[in-house]
Design goal:
The chain is an alpha+beta fold. It folds into 2 domains: about 1-200, 3-Layer(aba) Sandwich (Rossmann fold), CATH 3.40.50; about 210-315, OB fold (Dihydrolipoamide Acetyltransferase, E2P) (Beta Barrel). Helices cover about 30% and strands about 30% of the residues. It has 9 helices and 17 strands. The protein has a 6-stranded mixed beta sheet with strand order 4-5-6-1-7-8, with helices on both faces. Strands 11-10-9-12-17 form a 5-stranded antiparallel beta sheet. Strands 15-14-13-16 form a 4-stranded antiparallel beta sheet, with no helix packed on it. Strand 7 (about 175) and strand 8 form a beta hairpin. The longest helix has 18 residues, at about 135-150. The two termini are about 25 Å apart. About 30% of the residues are buried.
Length: about 325
């Protein structure tokens, strides 16, 4: 489970309540069917990994990993077996005699993970553990984390503000904003059917186009009046929207269709290898985000028309809630 949202939305506070550092002002926290509100953090059998690696600089990697086992006063041979086992799992068994200062950021994060795993917790809590790593290492460690979670089968709650990280890691995502839970679902559910305009704008890169629209009717045909022009409303949308007047129309960049026509123009193009990302200026000056195929021959300033893959679009009330 990934807790996803902007800075200050309550993700870490929620994590620390689960850990027992903070007590909730109301309600109950359950581990399985047991209420743990009054259970001390040390008695919750959790493993925690933070943005800060929190390694002991004067200890070797072996001793850092072994530290929580020594606190439990486990036999020396059992400690040795467990440390070497988890070090091998995380591919740091060749680093056990080194000190943290001799390791890269990615290696240090693996050590922090090893120290959490070696305790054999019933729950992992991770607070932005990859944010200090550079982009390439972050992708590598992310893949490692996903593999480990599946291999160990330990419930994991992971906090991040990075929606790409959430989509790649999570079985389920809980999106938060200003302390309020916005939507809980699988990555596909959140991407394909966001519950409100906040989730729609927060999930996906490039970001979705969320467009102010009026619904008008002329000669028994309903239209979206938006972007300085009109688009006929599909028949299956029209029945649902017949009592609406002001709405938000949401379309992701990959579902905008560039067609022959006039009124729109190519404002900018970024070639990204396997695809191109463009801004298209609408008649009212709005810039639409559009994903183009790599073989596209469009040029800046070229006049075009626009249509949409309506099967993938959504309409929201003016207050932000999903209609269709």
């Amino acid at each position: 489970m990934v807790l996803l949202g902007p800075s200050g939305c309550g993700k870490t506070t929620t994590l620390l309540m689960i850990a027992g550092v903070y007590k909730p002002s109301s309600g109950y926290i359950y581990f399985d069917d047991k209420i743990v509100n009054d259970l001390e953090p040390k008695d919750r059998n959790i493993g925690m990994v933070f943005q800060s690696y929190a390694l002991y600089p004067h200890m070797t990697i072996y001793d850092n990993i072994a530290f929580p086992l020594r606190l439990k006063k486990l036999p020396k041979d059992e400690i040795d077996r467990k440390v070497k086992q988890v070090a091998s799992m995380l591919r740091i068994d060749n680093l056990l005699n080194r000190y943290p200062r001799q390791l890269s950021g990615g290696q240090q994060q693996r050590v922090a993970l090893a120290r959490a795993i070696v305790k054999e917790p019933s729950l992992f809590l991770m607070d932005e553990p990859l944010s200090n790593l550079d982009a390439k290492i972050r992708v590598e460690v992310r893949a490692e984390l996903k593999r480990l979670q599946k291999e160990l089968g330990i419930t994991t709650i992971y906090v991040t503000h990075d929606q790409a990280e959430a989509l790649s890691l999570a079985d389920r995502i809980a999106v938060m904003n200003e302390g309020i839970l916005q939507q809980v679902g699988s990555p596909d559910e959140l991407y394909s059917r966001p519950a409100n305009t906040f989730v729609a704008s927060f999930i996906g890169a490039p970001a979705a186009n969320i467009i102010d629209a009026n619904i008008v009717e002329e000669k028994n045909v309903m239209y979206f009046e938006m972007l300085g022009t009109r688009f006929p409303i599909p028949r299956d949308y029209a029945e649902v929207l017949k009592n609406e007047t002001k709405v938000y129309f949401m379309v992701r960049p990959e579902d905008v269709r560039i067609v022959e026509g006039k009124g729109f123009s190519i404002y900018s193009i970024e070639w990204l290898g396997r695809e191109a990302f463009a801004h298209v200026r609408a008649p009212d000056g709005t810039l639409l985000r559009v994903i183009l195929p790599p073989e596209s021959k469009l040029t800046i300033g070229q006049e075009v028309g626009v249509n949409f893959n309506y099967a993938k679009t959504h309409v929201y009330k003016s207050t932000g809630e999903l209609i269709i």
